[in-house]
Amino acid sequence: MKTMDVAPRSRFATMMQERPLIVLSAVLVVLVAITVAIEPNFLSVAGFRNTVLIAVPLGLLGGAQTILMLTGGIDLSVAMIATGAAYVAGNQSPEGAATAILLGLAVGVLAGAANGIGVGVFRVNPLIMTLAMAAILLGLFTAWAQGWLQGSTTPAPLIRRLGASTFWGGVPYAAVVWAVFGGAILLMLRRTGFGRLLYAIGDNPIAVRLSGVRIWQVQIAVYTIAGLLAAVAGILLGGRTGAVDLALASGLLLPSVATAVIGGTSIFGGVGTYSGTIMGALILSVLGSMLTFLQVGQAVQQIVYGAIVLVLSWVYARVTGVSQ
Fold first, then answer.
1. How far apart (Å, rounded) are the C-alpha atoms in residues 320 and 273?
2. C-alpha distances in angstroms, 214 versus 59, 118, 197?
3. By mean pLDDT, which of 7-16, 183-192, 214-223, 254-263 is the weakest?
4. Which H/E stretch holds residue 171?
5. What is the pLDDT of residues 7-39, one digit of tens each?
6. Nearest-CA neighbor of 138 among 61, 223, 78, 80?
7. Coil, helix or strand at residue 166
8. Closest listed residue to residue 240, CA positions, set 310, 188, 178
9. CB half-sphere exposure, 323, CA atoms < 13 A
10. What angle (nearest 5°) sits at the alpha carbon of residue 55, between those of residues 50 and 58?
11. In this structure, how many other beta carbons lie within 10 angstroms of the beta carbon of residue 48?
12. pLDDT of residue 297
């Protein structure tokens, strides 16, 4: 009886380890089928557009969490960085779209670099460092909104076009932006020495340090990249909503983590792919649409996302033997 019980589990574990995209694709197909049964118009051009527009910020924020988790880190400030970048871009839009976007991206780069310095140089725990950064940014932007950042919070037409408009009858511009940054992440992780370093640091930081790698430099770089991705997500989200406030991306922190975990990334480092995170973003976007059609409130959606993180962490640990 024990042999019969172990064999199926071993086959399932092998598929989860070697072909996780097959499992994730099956989950996505099932969710799409359920959503179509609830709302047949989900498969329309408008349904496709809305699903992609939901997935884009999740995919970018999930990408930030993925590259950090590979090193054994995490960023609890990504939602606030996204909000701050969008707020600055909206406020500075009267100066021109290019200026607004560059200043918004600068918010992400500076905040991400500060996180990296705190984690890499001063050895602050990533949870504490990024949670503190989120609180600092919220305080700063709350004060600045009454001072030098008061005034317009409406993104420039170009930003709104990138965030919400489509071409070729239904392909969102935001998807193109995601494809550019997503392709860069995939290339970095699969084809560059820097990407291999992220896996190595998460798997065995002591061995990496003994080999002569200055891990703190890698951490500064990867947190800076994560901040940039969060800023891009926030600017696109601001363009989609057409107006920004200091709660713009507050509900995306837990989904950003869930997106990476669904894709098979371990929060303890060394395990994960961005292709899995892309599938995770699509799964969560379809799930979000399904819950919206069922008229489920935001609070319940957050409960669902939290449950997904807990359940999948347990499932991955059981079937692969790797801690999440």
1. 15
2. 29, 15, 11
3. 7-16
4. strand 171-172
5. 445 565 556 666 778 888 988 999 999 999 999
6. 80
7. strand
8. 178
9. 6
10. 145
11. 16
12. 83
Q: Which amino acid is at 71?
A: T
Nearest CA-CA partner of 219 in 234, 232, 209, 211: 209
Q: Which of 283, 324, 310 is nearest to 62 (CA)?
A: 283
Measure Cα distances from 251 to 48, 61, 305 in Å.
Answer: 22, 12, 11
- Say what angle helices 193-203 and 173-191 make with each other, to 10 degrees: 70
Q: What is the pLDDT of residue 5?
A: 44
- H helices, E strands: number in the chain: 14, 2
**Cβ atoms within 10 Å, residue 17:** 15
Report which residue type is found at 213: V
CA distances from 266 to 73, 110, 181 (A): 10, 26, 22
Sign of the Cα pseudo-torsion (150, 155, 284, 35, in order): positive
For 175, the token pair is 């998807």
pLDDT in tens, 229-250: 999 999 999 999 999 999 999 9
Q: Give, as one character, the DSSP assignment of residue 242.
A: S
* Phi, psi (deg, nearest 5) at residue 171: -90, 115
How many angstroms separate the CA atoms of 81 and 138, rounded?
A: 9
Taking residues 252-269, report their average pLDDT. Answer: 92
d(CA 185, CA 112): 16
The answer to whether 82 and 249 have CB atoms below 8 angstroms apart is yes
Q: Given pLDDT bands bounded at 50, 70 and 90, which one contains residue 6?
A: very low
Whether residue 201 contacts residue 218, with contact meaning beta carbons closer than 8 Å, is answered with yes
248, with CB counted inside 10 A (0-12, 13-18, 19+), is buried
Q: Does the model's pTM come out above 0.90?
A: yes
Cβ neighbourhood burial of 185 (10 Å; 0-12, 13-18, 19+):
buried
